[in-house]
Design a protein that fits this description.
Elements (H helix, E strand, L loop, with lengths): L1 E5 L5 H18 L8 H9 L5 E10 L2 E11 L6 E8 L8 H15 L4 E8 L7 H8 L3 E12 L4 H5 L8 E6 L8 H14 L14 H11 L3 E10 L5 E10 L4 E9 L8 H16 L5 E7 L3 H10 L2 E12 L3
Parallel strand pairs: 4-5, 10-11
Antiparallel strand pairs: 1-2, 2-3, 3-4, 5-12, 6-11, 6-12, 7-8, 8-9, 9-10
Bound molecules: coenzyme A.
Length: 330
């Protein structure tokens, strides 16, 4: 008899079990998984963002937690959307536990009038079937977008670093750590908004969020407990207009780096800015964080300009991420 219940966020031991079940279920079929760390999970569940609420469910079999689910509900944009993640321990799969977690999460999503459900599943690079993909397909989800998860060993050898561009004629590259300087933050927020609009997202039924300075600051403050960040932005010297940025996260206590956004603004494309920005960050990583051994990135499988830069830098695909979507009637 399976019992589905809310995770008790006031019980640290219960939150830890939730984390361990999520890790074990995900790692069972994904040797290259990049998962949220314990500090990240604590930050997401215990210091929630004002932009998303989360509901966390556990499935128990005779008192033992064998599965988890998380429902993420955007609060300030996309009121029709709900993000769903379901995890079931390998030894208890194909007993309907995933479906029960899904059904309860969907009941809650509907109560919040959410009609489009989104969830990520992963397959090997060649697209071979996985448990997650079979499960999502059985529940009526369809592929809305695909990304390649790629990785690159760090630190790059000195000879390799020496061959990377140091900049682009007519631009200065500015870098910062935990907090974007006050005089840049407005332009930086505008570029974040543009990133949401320009990054290929296939058929995902969502409206890109608008970033203002408050949203940038809130993100910086909240994520500092779980990650260190490094950002680089390119500013045209003739008129001070920003041409693009790149952002990486270094999770505390881990040996890897996550490459997040890279954007070159439309008027500034074709000058090598994307490569120059990423190269600057790779240099900073080699000089200041030689303990990091790998960097991960995710790119739309149709995003040829970004894929080309990553190939030139030496990134290689390790798995495929599929964004699965289902539209329901209320
Ligand atoms: C995907 C996952 C949650 C499924 O959990 P589960 O408890 O085994 O799922 P269920 O038993 O409820 O399966 C429901 C249906 O999905 C399909 N399905 C699930 N796993 C499958 C598999 N490995 N192969 C083929 N079909 C599968 C079947 O149609 C199944 O119904 P059936 O058993 O009556 O044929 C589990 O494999 C898992 O945790 N995987 C890793 C995390 C993940 O990918 N999560 C999904 C994305 S959010």
């Amino acid at each position: 008899m399976i019992e589905i219940a809310d995770l008790d966020l006031t019980d640290e031991g219960a939150v830890r079990v939730y984390f361990e079940v999520e890790q074990a279920a995900q790692r069972a079929d994904r040797p290259d998984a990049v998962l949220r760390t314990w500090p990240q999970l604590q930050q997401m569940l215990l210091q929630p963002s004002p932009y998303h609420t989360r509901q966390s469910l556990v499935a128990r079999d005779e008192g033992r937690v064998v599965g988890t689910a998380e429902l993420a509900l955007p609060q300030q944009d996309n009121p029709h959307l709900a993000g769903l993640q379901v995890n079931v321990l390998q030894e208890t799969r194909r007993r309907g536990i995933g479906r029960e977690l899904h059904d309860e999460a969907v009941r809650r999503a509907r109560a919040e009038r959410r009609t489009t459900l989104l969830g990520e599943v992963f397959t090997p690079v060649d697209g071979a079937m996985s448990a997650g993909l079979a499960f999502a397909g059985a529940l009526g989800f369809e592929v809305a977008h695909q990304e390649d998860h790629q990785s690159l060993r760090l630190p790059l050898p000195r000879t390799r670093l020496a061959g990377l561009p140091v900049g682009v004629e007519g631009y200065e590259i500015l870098t910062w750590g935990p907090r974007c300087p006050d005089d840049l933050v407005e332009a930086y927020a505008e570029m974040h908004t543009r990133m949401g609009q320009d990054a290929p997202s296939g058929d995902i039924d969502f409206q890109p969020a608008t970033f203002d300075v408050a949203r940038i600051r809130e993100g910086e403050e909240r994520t500092a407990n779980a990650y260190q960040q490094i950002a680089a932005a390119a500013r045209r010297t003739s008129d001070g207009v920003f041409g693009g940025y790149t952002l990486v996260y270094l999770p505390h206590g881990e040996d890897y780096v996550v490459q997040d956004d890279t954007l070159v603004m439309p008027d500034h494309r074709g000058h090598g800015l994307g490569m120059a920005l990423k190269s600057r960050v790779l240099r900073i990583l080699a000089e200041e964080h030689p303990d990091r051994t790998v960097i991960h990135t995710w790119n739309g499988t149709a995003n040829e300009p970004m894929l080309r830069i990553n190939r030139e830098l030496g990134f290689r695909p390790v798995e495929r991420e599929l964004e699965m979507q289902r539209r329901d009637q209320l």
